[in-house]
Specification:
globular, 74% helix, 314 residues, mainly alpha, two-stranded antiparallel ribbon
Length: 314
């Protein structure tokens, strides 16, 4: 395939399949399953992977288990509500894309009105849980993430700018701030460095997936970068964002006084991620893009796992 203005030739999904973070997913077959699907649980799982390690770092050890549980519940409710609102907003374009055509609002498993009421209820519950169980700052941060995700990304940037995920993706980085605020009641430099790590991680992670489904985005007229820019340009931006992310992970070492466990993991995993973006540039195939996408998830798990281990051991 010649590398040009059409980045990749994506493969079409089999009828009835819905692709999630880890592969094809079937449409929900029960009412309860449909409401759960509205929250995009596979995405929530990834957000929570970053929250607990951040709380451990903020506490300088294992924080109150009760506080961890409350923060995870509140964070899950807030993220689930935001995802449900996003599905409510995107129900018109979801029916145009193969990988989203079996979402509950497209199939009619849940009506738009009920989905929106469900989403708002989750947000109210999240605010109450975090305020009562943690503190007001954590609750406000969680709600602000939803407001940014919905107002800035979903309603504005997603359909109007090829840099949509670069700016809008910041909403996905707020859980680390929520975790830090839940423990300390404030936000220090270390919290903002972790926020920057996730901000820079989000574009290459998202674009790697978007390479495979570029035709879906074109069909829905969503200007996700791999759908509207030449392949080499997108890979170049992926590399730049990845390099900035790695720089932030290393900056965290002196800021948070971290030890050799985190240092080795951050340096090694960062080099692999950089190499993966270069490799993708030399192998412009859907399979290669999905392998980079899969590694991006592994990367976050390894990085934050090493962060937790480093703090607990030291």
């Amino acid at each position: 395939m010649a590398v040009g203005s059409r980045p990749l030739v994506p493969s079409r999904l089999a009828p009835g399949a819905l692709t999630g973070a880890h592969g094809p997913r079937r449409a929900a077959t029960t009412t309860v399953g449909a409401y759960i699907a509205l929250t995009k649980p596979q995405i929530i799982e990834l957000l929570l992977v970053t929250t607990v390690p951040t709380m451990v770092l903020a506490a300088g050890g294992w924080p109150s288990t009760w506080l961890v549980v409350v923060t995870l519940i509140g964070g899950t409710l807030a993220a689930g509500g935001a995802n449900a609102i996003n599905m409510y907003i995107d129900r018109d374009i979801d029916r145009l894309m193969a990988r989203t055509a079996h979402r509950p609002l497209v199939t009619g498993a849940v009506t738009p009105g009920r989905a929106l009421l469900f989403a708002i209820s989750l947000e109210v519950a999240a605010f109450v849980v975090l305020w009562a169980g943690a503190n007001l700052l954590a609750a406000v941060l969680a709600l602000s993430a939803t407001a940014f995700y919905v107002g800035v990304y979903s309603l504005w940037l997603k359909r109007s700018s090829r840099q949509n995920i670069v700016i809008g993706g910041a909403a996905g980085a707020v859980p680390v701030l929520v975790g830090w605020a839940a423990v300390t009641g404030e936000l220090s430099l270390a919290a903002w460095v972790l926020f920057a790590v996730i901000c820079f991680w989000t574009p290459p992670h998202t674009w790697a997936l978007a390479f495979r489904y570029a035709d879906d985005y074109r069909a829905a007229n969503v200007p996700m970068l791999p759908a509207v820019a030449p392949f080499p340009n997108v890979v170049r931006q992926m590399f730049v964002h990845t390099a900035a992310m790695v720089a932030c992970t290393l900056w965290l070492i002196p800021v948070a006084d971290l030890g050799w466990i985190y240092t080795v993991a951050a340096a090694a995993a960062g080099l692999v991620f950089l190499a993966a973006t270069v490799w993708l540039g030399a192998n412009p195939t859907p399979g290669a893009s999905m392998r980079v996408f899969g590694f991006s998830i592994t990367y976050v798990t390894l990085l934050f796992g090493a962060l937790t281990l480093d703090v607990l051991v030291s």
